[in-house]
Sequence to fold (439 residues):
Amino acid sequence: MPRMFAFTLFLWNLAHTAIASDALILKHYEVNAQNLAELYQQFHSQPELSGKEVLTSKRLANALKNAGCEVHEGIGGHGVVGVLKNGKGRVLMIRADMDALPLIEKTGLAYASKVQVRDDNGNLVGVMHACGHDINITCLAGVASVLGKMKDQWQGTILLVGQPAEETGRGARAMLVDGLFTKFPKPDLALALHCDGRFPSGFPSGHVNYRAGPMQANVDSVEIIIKGKGGHGAFPDKAIDPIVIAARVVRDLQFIISRERDPLDPAVITVGSIHGGTKHNIIPAEVKLELTVRTVRTASRINILSAIERVAQAASLGAGAPEPVVRLNASEFTPELINDVELTTKTVKVFESLLGKDKVHERPMSLGGEDFSQFVRAGVPGFYYFLGSADPKAVAIAKQGGNPLAVTHSDSYFPDYATVIKTGVRTMGAAVLFHLADK
Ligand SMILES: [Zn+2]
Ligand SMILES: [Zn+2]
Fold:
């Protein structure tokens, strides 16, 4: 068969199969749509912080049981693993993250969260699903339900994974350490979807976006303690002022990016927190800085982390201060997320035949972080994609200069949930059927 003809036939078969299975997915989805909407609102109104997903994981476990999964709870903290077995074949993992963020919700929605809790530092904080993880887990439950009813369309094993603590970068690692790939069969491939809320460049609900290859950055957390010598604010000559040294460090850190790095190799150093002192007329003994560091290459990561230490030491040395403490928080490291190119290309073709090419978009790389990368790093080819999440009417208004759309991680963000969940179940369901079809 001529090559060109064979490829055209492959695409035709793909489109034909995808459309036929899409009709069935939609039929099963529609029966369950009201339940999923209620489940979503329950997840949304009762969010839980990273590592504290007690109620959320229980609720997800019940939904997976109802879909016919064998369910295992308490994996790596509050992680949940639902197993759908259907004879011999490949093992496919779908991962959804479950945790919420410490924000007081200001969406004004009828089902808005009113939850407040004490965080690990004892501060009273609001709790809100501001990253759309409530969408991700609702889609997981929806996909489980649909695929549980379509066992004549696929074969193999599906692992449906509810992951805790994505926002702290700890959950995926904790599940792996607790035996996700040893207590359960190691997947041949892993898929994940995430609600997208990057506006104004984001997409409306009903659209998806993706990137083949490197997609998200290495994320490191670094703590610097600048040590000085405390004293009276009126007598700086009798003290060593760590606040002035800290100010110098904050400035010099930016020179690493602008003067030491290849401008074509993106990296970010952000000082997200700076604390020192108690009162206007006391020079404190120390100042603490907390940094997030984003890089896309291992060599750059190593260079930048060592440059941070050098800059902090140089500032302290220059001021005649004691050596600063520079600590890398290794337990919060999230490696770069790299989508498997072949897996991405094939799955995107399925999406295009399902939604139309005009609703499937390639996106640029981002310096955001995502610990789905831990599963890829553990040797499983992965594909992670985003679901456009804003009401198309609101997007149109925003584009004409009207009300701007709230972004994820803000207290006013909310997705156009019914369409987003439907798109999530359709695309993920079709992707699984494609990869687990009897070939
Ligand atoms: Zn987030
Ligand atoms: Zn997220």
